[in-house]
Amino acid sequence: MTLEIIATNLTDAKHAEAYGADRLELSPGMLETGLTPSFGLIDAVANAVDIPFNVIVRPHSQSFIYNNDDIEVMQKDIEMTKQLGADGIVIGMLTPDHVIDEEVLKQLLHTAEGLDVTFHRAFDFVRDQEEALVCLAKHPQVKRVLTAAGQQPAPASIPNMKRLIKLAEDTHLEIMAGYGLKTDTFSEFYKEVNPKEVHFGSGVREDESYLSPIVAEKVNKIRTILDA
């Protein structure tokens, strides 16, 4: 079972690894739901941790809709992310009609050849998640989908989460449950849903705030549940 934790800075990355994370999502700017990190931060994390880390590539927080200028920036960011030693990227793009923008996806996947790829929670804002899953299943480079199975926190979307996991069984995709997971309710969620990968952000922090540090006891509690 894989535990992914959001790191917003170098200290987060070091602590998440020390406390038991299997993988990091390097994603500063979480008050804006994540923005591309600086190249200095990517380089520092690459030299500081031994566990895999994937870098969010999101040039702005206005939406998940990207124009040609955005795409140019994202491609450059992906190229640098690869050069600096990250293991993967976290991306997501939609059209104004709330479907996956497959043309943009193809362009970024071409640039990201050789990297691990996660499609992020833009998936939770599509018009039809089954349709979106079918689209992503056509692209072997995309390894997993980070989702709460809707726009509500994951624990409020258990039936749909189980449905998505079942649908993904016939594909190469892994459904990674995330958004709104908290240590005090995680055991019940995990027993009910049984995802192979889980993603924690504010739920492992002091006061459940991205402005606060990651707490060892919270990560240890999750790790115990996953390893039981």
TrEMBL record:
The keyword RNA-binding does not apply. Keywords: Cytoplasm. SUPFAM superfamilies: CutC-like (SSF110395). One of its GO terms (cellular component) is cytoplasm. InterPro entries: CutC-like, CutC-like_dom_sf. Its main location: cytoplasm. It is found in: Cytoplasm. The keyword Ubl conjugation does not apply. It comes from the Bacteria. One of its GO terms (molecular function) is copper ion binding. Gene3D superfamilies: Copper homeostasis (CutC) domain (3.20.20.380). Pfam families: CutC. Belongs to the CutC family. PANTHER family: COPPER HOMEOSTASIS PROTEIN CUTC (PTHR12598), COPPER HOMEOSTASIS PROTEIN CUTC HOMOLOG (PTHR12598:SF0). This is PF03932 family protein CutC. The lineage of its organism: Bacteria, Bacillati, Bacillota, Bacilli, Bacillales. The gene is cutC.
